[in-house]
Amino acid sequence: MPENSSAIVAEDLVKVYPGRRRRTTVRALDGLGFVVPAGRVFGLLGPNGAGKSTTTKILTTLSRPTSGHATVAGHDVRTDPGAVRAAIGYVSQGTGTDPNLTATENLEIAARMRGSSRGDAVARTAQLLDDFGLADAAGRPVRTFSGGMRRRLDVAAALVHRPRVLFLDEPTTGLDPEARATMWTEIRRLSAHDALTVVLTTHYMEEADRLADEILLVDRGRAVAQGAPDSLKAALHGDSLRVALIEPDADAVRAAIARIPSLGSDAIVETSGVDGQLIARVEDASTAVGAVISALDAAGIRYGQVSASHPTLDDVYLHFVGHSFGDDITLQEGAAA
């Protein structure tokens, strides 16, 4: 693949799952398109159900699009799936290694299945175990590994054939903070030292912010925004103000803040069960906090944590989609939406 070329090109991808047994038809992808530059960490970011995993399955030839076109490493996913599979590594959300085999056995078998000779498989296995900090545990059954160790072995197994593009589908879900940080380090190393294109699907904002050179925000199967994390955040001026609400009456909250000029027209109130939040973008959060607290106190509205920060990826998502990133939040209309 030539330098500075595109590792992935997706054009107008649509995926429809037909309804069966009284289930409704699901349109998982709705005209999704994007380009992934070679040699970068590219993040597909969106809440559960946004279409991230469906996109990954299409690009790895595990599913066919209903319509649209995509190439990976220069190969068409529809007409040349074999060449695509030879050029990629894929780590799904579930583990792909045998828990009863040792780490060494898992990697050597994976390498032989990818066409390596016995000698090459042994050498590649030793290298990967060392690269991923698993050499000391090479002879142990995988069932004795921690979650973080298993995940690192999954990634190593996807790299035995030296792919040009590596797909990681929610690679740190279920890991503790220490194991997650270790995985982040490995992902950055792969991109920096091995010139590997990494496509990372995640619903963790911090993960995408820390790892991705470029991200695509996805919502309901559509592209929302694309760019470098810092560039997307810099495009939003001012600060972000958030107030946790306790048993909120959305109408009462909106009425209470309606006369605060510094909140502008972007303030919204979201509720989820007995909790919710007030979210606003302001020129100077430090001056707006006092006015908001006074207004809520005067209206007898209970609230919890009040926070102010520079724009985050959640604010970017909110700006383009109209609701925050939470999976199960029901949106209430904004103060002047």
Q: Can you tell me about this structure?
A:
This protein is an alpha/beta fold and about 325 residues long. It has 2 domains: about 5-230, Rossmann fold (3-Layer(aba) Sandwich); about 235-330, Alpha-Beta Plaits (2-Layer Sandwich), CATH 3.30.70. It is built from 11 helices and 15 strands. The strands form 3 sheets. Strands 6-7-8-3-9-10 form a 6-stranded mixed sheet, with helices on both faces. A 5-stranded antiparallel sheet has the order 14-11-13-12-15, covered by helices on one side. A hairpin with an 8-residue loop joins β1 (about 5-15) and β2. α3 packs across α4, α3 packs parallel to α5 and α5 (about 145-160) packs parallel to α6 (about 175-195). It is elongated and about 75 Å long. The protein starts with 5 loop residues before the first strand and ends in a 6-residue tail after the last strand.
Summarize the structure.
This protein is an alpha/beta fold and 337 residues long. The chain has eleven helices and 15 strands.
Task: Please outline the helices and strands.
Blueprint: E1 6-17, E2 26-37, E3 41-45, H1 52-59, E4 67-72, E5 75-76, H2 81-87, E6 88-91, H3 103-113, H4 118-131, H5 147-158, E7 165-169, H6 177-194, E8 197-202, H7 205-211, E9 214-219, E10 222-227, H8 229-234, E11 239-246, H9 250-257, E12 268-272, E13 275-282, H10 285-298, E14 303-309, H11 313-321, E15 330-331
Parallel strand pairs: 3-8, 3-9, 6-7, 7-8
Antiparallel strand pairs: 1-2, 1-4, 4-5, 9-10, 11-13, 11-14, 12-13, 12-15
Helix pairs in contact: 3-4, 3-5, 5-6
